[in-house]
C-alpha cells in the first residue's frame, strides 16, 4: 500500500472511491506516488501530486490505454529525476467523444459535474445543448446548464422559459453573468471540496471567464491558507484550477460538433423525459414518429424530439461496422433501383 497525503490530494479532487482502489494494488512499487493528469502531449504528460505539477512519461505498456486529463495514476521516480507513470486507476467517470472516423477520443476522467456553458446571445442553440447533455449523461456525469451572458443576451427571459419547457425539470438550469461574483454563489452547490468540474461549450461562450470568476473567489476566501506550506496555493496548474469552496475545474479545449460516445440504449436513457413517456406508448417499439397511441409526440418539444431522432441515427450509424455499412448501401441501391423501376413502370402504363 503506497502512502498518500489525502488532505492535499483532496484539493486536486481525490475521492474516497479512487483512494480505496489503492488497497487493491498489490504490486505497486513502494516508492510510487499518486498523481493526477493535468495535460497530455504526444511525448509526455503533466501530472499534479497535490503539491506541485511536473512532467512525466507513461510506461510503454500504457500506450494503448485511453489516458485522459483527470485520470489518477501511480508515478515512480527513477534516476535523474525522471518520472514514469506505471499504473492507471480505473476512472469513476470518463467523458469521450466519437470522432468522424468512428474512433473514441478521451476528453476527461473522474469528473463529478459538467458545466455546459452556452451564451444567451447568438450562441444560443438548444440542439447543441442537448448534444452536450447526451455526451455528459451517457458518461454518468451530472450536467448543470449554465446560460451565460444573462446581462447582455437577447430575449433572455423567453430563451430561459423555452429551455425550462424543453428540458427535463431534473436538469439544473441557471442564467448567469460569468463576469459577476454572483456566478460563484449560484454554482455553490456543485463547488464543494474534492469535487471536480469540467466546462464544456463553444468558443466564446464564457468558459474562461467563468473559470476566472470562480477561481478568483477562491483566492480571496482561500487566502488564509496561503502561508501554511501545503495550502491551496500549491494548486497552480495550467489546466486544473481551484475554486472558492475547494472544488477543482479542469480546462478542456473547445469542442465543436461532438458526437456522444454511446450506444442507442444509453442515449435513450439520457433523454429521460422521452424514455419515461415511451413506457406509455401503445406500441412497445414505438418510434414516436406518428404511430397511433404515442405518448411522446405532443408531450415533448417537437424540435427536441427531432434532435433525439438525429442523435439516435448518428449512434446507430457509428455502431455499424464497415461491413454493415456496405450492406446498408447495397440495400439502399436495390431499393432505389426498385423505386426507379416502379416509376418507369407507372409511366409506361400511362
Ligand atoms: N457581459 C458578459 N460578457 C461575457 C459573459 N461571458 C463571457 N463574456 C465575454 O465573452 C467573451 C468570450 O468569453 P470567454 O470566457 O473567453 O469564452 P470561452 O468559452 O472561454 O472561449 P474559448 O476560450 O475560445 O473556448 C469575453 O470577452 C467575455 O468577457 C457574460 O456572462 N456577460
Ligand atoms: Zn411513441
From TrEMBL:
Subcellular location: Cytoplasm
A Gene Ontology BP annotation from the UniProt entry: ribosomal small subunit biogenesis
GO MF terms held by the record: GTP binding; GTPase activity; metal ion binding; rRNA binding
One Pfam family matching this protein: RsgA_GTPase
Cofactor note: Binds 1 zinc ion per subunit.
Main location: cytoplasm
An example Gene Ontology CC term for this record: cytoplasm
Annotated binding of GTP, by residue: 148-151, 201-209
Binding site for Zn(2+): 281, 286, 288, 294
Coiled coil: none
UniProt keyword terms in alphabetical order: Cytoplasm, GTP-binding, Hydrolase, Metal-binding, Nucleotide-binding, Ribosome biogenesis, RNA-binding, rRNA-binding, Zinc
Primary enzyme class: hydrolase
UniProt-listed Gene3D superfamilies: P-loop containing nucleotide triphosphate hydrolases, Probable gtpase engc, domain 3
Top-level taxon: Bacteria
Cofactor(s), names only, from the UniProt record: Zn(2+)
EC number of the protein: 3.6.1.-
All residue ranges annotated as the CP-type G domain in the record: 99-258
HAMAP family per the UniProt record, alphabetical: GTPase_RsgA
Self-association state and partner proteins as the record states: Monomer. Associates with 30S ribosomal subunit, binds 16S rRNA.
Reported function: One of several proteins that assist in the late maturation steps of the functional core of the 30S ribosomal subunit. Helps release RbfA from mature subunits. May play a role in the assembly of ribosomal proteins into the subunit. Circularly permuted GTPase that catalyzes slow GTP hydrolysis, GTPase activity is stimulated by the 30S ribosomal subunit.
Family named by the database record: Belongs to the TRAFAC class YlqF/YawG GTPase family. RsgA subfamily.
Protein name: Small ribosomal subunit biogenesis GTPase RsgA
Amino acid at each position: 500500500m503506497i502512502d498518500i497525503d489525502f488532505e492535499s490530494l483532496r484539493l486536486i479532487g481525490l475521492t474516497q472511491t479512487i483512494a480505496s482502489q489503492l488497497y487493491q494494488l498489490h504490486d505497486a512499487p513502494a516508492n510510487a506516488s499518486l498523481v493526477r493528469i493535468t495535460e497530455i502531449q504526444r511525448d509526455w504528460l503533466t501530472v499534479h501530486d497535490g503539491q506541485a505539477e511536473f512532467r512525466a512519461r507513461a510506461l510503454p505498456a500504457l500506450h494503448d490505454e485511453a489516458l485522459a486529463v483527470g485520470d489518477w495514476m501511480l508515478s515512480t521516480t527513477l534516476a535523474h529525476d525522471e518520472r514514469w507513470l506505471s499504473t492507471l486507476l480505473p476512472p469513476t467517470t470518463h467523458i469521450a467523444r466519437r470522432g468522424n472516423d468512428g474512433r473514441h477520443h478521451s476528453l476527461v476522467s473522474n469528473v463529478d459535474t459538467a458545466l455546459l456553458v452556452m451564451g444567451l446571445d447568438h450562441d444560443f442553440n438548444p440542439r447543441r445543448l442537448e448534444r452536450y447533455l447526451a455526451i455528459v449523461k451517457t458518461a454518468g456525469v451530472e450536467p448543470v446548464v449554465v446560460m451565460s451572458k444573462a446581462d447582455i443576451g437577447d430575449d433572455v427571459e423567453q430563451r430561459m422559459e423555452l429551455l425550462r419547457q424543453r428540458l427535463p425539470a431534473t436538469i439544473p438550469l441557471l442564467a448567469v453573468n460569468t463576469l459577476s461574483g454572483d456566478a460563484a454563489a449560484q454554482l455553490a452547490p456543485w463547488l464543494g471540496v474534492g469535487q471536480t468540474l469540467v466546462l464544456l461549450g463553444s468558443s466564446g461562450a464564457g468558459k474562461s471567464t467563468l473559470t476566472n470568476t470562480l477561481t478568483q473567489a477562491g483566492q480571496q476566501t482561500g487566502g488564509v491558507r496561503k502561508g501554511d506550506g501545503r495550502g491551496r496555493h500549491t494548486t497552480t496548474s495550467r489546466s486544473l484550477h481551484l475554486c472558492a469552496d475547494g472544488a477543482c475545474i479542469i480546462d478542456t479545449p473547445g469542442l465543436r460538433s461532438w458526437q456522444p460516445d454511446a450506444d442507442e440504449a444509453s442515449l435513450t436513457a439520457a433523454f429521460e423525459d422521452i424514455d419515461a413517456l415511451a413506457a406509455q406508448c401503445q406500441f412497445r417499439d414505438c418510434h414516436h414518429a406518428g404511430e397511433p397511441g404515442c405518448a411522446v409526440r405532443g408531450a415533448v418539444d417537437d424540435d427536441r424530439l427531432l434532435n433525439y431522432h438525429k442523435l439516435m441515427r448518428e449512434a446507430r450509424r457509428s455502431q455499424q461496422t464497415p461491413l454493415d455499412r456496405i450492406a446498408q448501401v447495397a440495400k439502399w441501391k436495390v431499393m432505389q433501383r426498385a423505386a426507379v423501376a416502379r416509376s418507369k413502370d407507372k409511366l409506361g402504363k400511362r
